[in-house]
């Protein structure tokens, strides 16, 4: 007999979700603008009112938790007796903070030396205390104390509205670096990494700056995606600080290409290929192919092909061997050139700041002023260069000095002339306010062809001025002597100078004002009556890798062959 089917239970209705309770949170000003800004940034009631709506129960939880979230802010600003009142009327939530009295530092005791730069009577702000402690620790480490420690105890006396601080400063011993140990290499010879880092570290006194420079040197080898330097927590049996360099390799073969377009000069293309570890010792072989003025008159095409070899620790010597051959076709406003070039330099660092480079140079080709028949030339020389650099940043220096001097005894076979191209340049930076936000930057260049004059050497060996890396506001190579046809002829001497004020605003923005001057002369020293002056202003947007630069400049002295203004964009400061 058929059995009756069981009755189907009615479907249960889904539970109703609690209704969202909209609200608008507002902080009542305390009278301290800095404190108000910090409270606004930390408040959950303000931050979540739009992005995370909640129901009545959730809102009540936020209100209850808000005082404990805000209290560290008032404490950090020295208001250790602050009171908090949060009220709700309909959708309006009012956050009222009564800071109370500003506490001050009373007794500061220090066991050991030196003492942090704090004084009784100053506001008891946590940020000031922590900054003074960090500055002291940095100072001790820069003085060669790698294991320096500072212990701090803070006591708040509410009736007296004061804070007492007790520091125990333990500088620890001064120490030298031990010979580095390398980990993480797979196909790169670790001995190359060890020796490159040891040039900065081994048997030298401890310094955070030396660690940073050693890391930069290892990273500059090329084969590594990351470089990390770790120091030991205790000295070894010889009283030295253990150092471990951990690297992670990256792909060794690299292909890159880029394209650009300028209204005046047409399109340009660049292709490069490189191998970052050709023989296993971080050797770098690079091929570059470039072409510019594409799409304009074919007779104006510029091209370059270059092969560059970079060899760390050549023949077992400390230092780097770098150079190679290149072929160029130049069609510039100052000269035409077809040439084969070769240079090879041995680069050796002396100490932390000095670098010396020397090696042979040679050039064989033909050149002439634009539109004239090309004439052959042959050059040979031996280059000497010295560089000094103690600036605090590559792309955005705020203090320090950079200087470079180069001299290349040369012989021009076509003219049977021995001569000496000499160039000295430098830049220095002054942090006027001490916080890195107002910088005065100065640059100077002097060049001279000793024992000859410009007509006796090929145009590519002469001095030119004007353009983004020179005197802004004037066209590239437009300053100096000219041919009877009005084209830049190049000179026998060069003088340039720049002064630039760099002012930063907020976290990411800045502006500059600058004056550039330059002169190119026909004799061994540039005549001052031929000086050209460019003035301008610029904008900076600061990123993690350096500032993005945009400068607008105008020439104060108009001249033939130069426009009425110049606009320049790049990465990093102008100098």
TrEMBL record:
Domain of life: Bacteria
InterPro entries listed in its UniProt record: Bac_surfAg_D15, D15-like
UniProt feature coiled coil, ranges: none
Keywords, sorted A to Z: Membrane, Transmembrane, Transmembrane beta strand
Pfam families listed in its UniProt record: Omp85 (PF01103)
UniProt protein name: BamA/TamA family outer membrane protein
Taxonomic placement: Bacteria, Pseudomonadati, Pseudomonadota, Alphaproteobacteria, Acetobacterales
Localization: Membrane
Residue intervals of the Bacterial surface antigen (D15) domain: 277-575
């Amino acid at each position: 007999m058929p059995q009756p089917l069981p009755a189907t239970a009615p479907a249960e209705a889904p539970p109703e979700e609690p209704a969202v309770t909209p609200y608008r949170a507002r902080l009542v000003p305390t009278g301290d603008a800095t404190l108000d800004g910090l409270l606004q940034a930390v408040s959950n009631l303000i931050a979540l009112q739009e992005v995370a709506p909640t129901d009545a129960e959730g809102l009540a939880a936020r209100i209850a938790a808000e005082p404990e979230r805000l209290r560290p802010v008032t404490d950090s600003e020295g208001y250790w007796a602050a009171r908090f009142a949060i009220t709700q009327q309909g959708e309006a939530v009012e956050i009222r903070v009564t800071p109370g009295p500003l506490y001050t530092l009373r007794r500061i005791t220090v066991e050991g030396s030196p003492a942090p730069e704090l004084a009784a009577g100053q506001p008891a702000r946590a940020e000031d205390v922590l900054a003074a402690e960090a500055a002291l620790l940095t100072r001790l480490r820069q003085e060669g104390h790698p294991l320096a420690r500072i212990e701090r105890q803070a006591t708040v006396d509410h009736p007296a509205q004061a804070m007492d601080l007790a520091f125990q400063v333990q500088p620890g011993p001064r120490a030298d670096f031990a010979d580095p140990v390398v980990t993480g290499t797979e196909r790169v010879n670790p001995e190359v990494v060890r020796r490159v880092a040891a040039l900065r570290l081994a048997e030298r006194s401890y310094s955070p700056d030396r660690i940073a420079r050693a890391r930069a040197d290892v990273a500059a080898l090329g084969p590594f995606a990351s470089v990390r330097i770790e120091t030991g927590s205790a000295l070894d049996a010889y009283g030295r600080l253990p150092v471990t360099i951990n690297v992670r390799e990256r792909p060794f073969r690299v292909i890159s290409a880029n394209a650009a377009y300028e209204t005046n000069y047409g399109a340009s293309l660049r292709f490069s290929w490189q191998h970052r570890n050709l023989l296993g010792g971080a050797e770098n072989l690079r091929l570059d192919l470039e072409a510019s003025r594409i799409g304009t008159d074919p007779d104006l095409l510029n091209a370059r092909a270059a092969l560059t070899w970079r060899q760390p620790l050549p023949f077992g010597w400390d230092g780097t061997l770098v150079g190679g051959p290149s072929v160029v076709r130049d069609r510039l406003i100052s000269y035409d050139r077809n040439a084969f070039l070769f240079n090879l330099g041995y680069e050796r660092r002396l100490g932390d700041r000095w670098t010396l480079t020397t090696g042979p140079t040679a050039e064989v080709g033909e050149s002439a002023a634009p539109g004239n028949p090309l004439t052959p030339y042959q050059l040979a020389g031996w280059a000497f260069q010295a560089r000094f650099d103690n600036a605090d940043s590559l792309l955005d220096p705020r203090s320090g000095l950079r200087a470079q001097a180069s001299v290349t005894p040369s012989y021009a076979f076509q003219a049977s002339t021995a001569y000496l191209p000499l160039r000295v340049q430098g830049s220095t930076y002054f942090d006027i306010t001490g916080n890195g936000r107002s910088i005065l930057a100065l640059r100077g260049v002097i060049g001279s062809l000793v024992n000859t004059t410009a007509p006796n050497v090929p145009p590519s060996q002469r001095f030119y001025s004007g353009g983004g890396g020179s005197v802004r506001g004037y066209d590239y190579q437009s300053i100096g002597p000219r041919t009877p046809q009005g084209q830049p002829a190049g000179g026998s001497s060069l003088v340039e100078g720049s002064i630039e004020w760099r002012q930063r605003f907020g976290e990411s923005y800045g502006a500059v004002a600058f004056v550039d001057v330059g002169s190119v002369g026909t004799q061994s020293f540039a005549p001052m009556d031929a000086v050209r002056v460019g003035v301008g202003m610029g904008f900076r947007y600061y990123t993690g890798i350096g500032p993005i630069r945009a400068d607008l400049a105008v020439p104060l002295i108009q001249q033939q062959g130069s426009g009425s203004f110049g606009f320049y964009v790049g990465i990093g400061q102008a100098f």
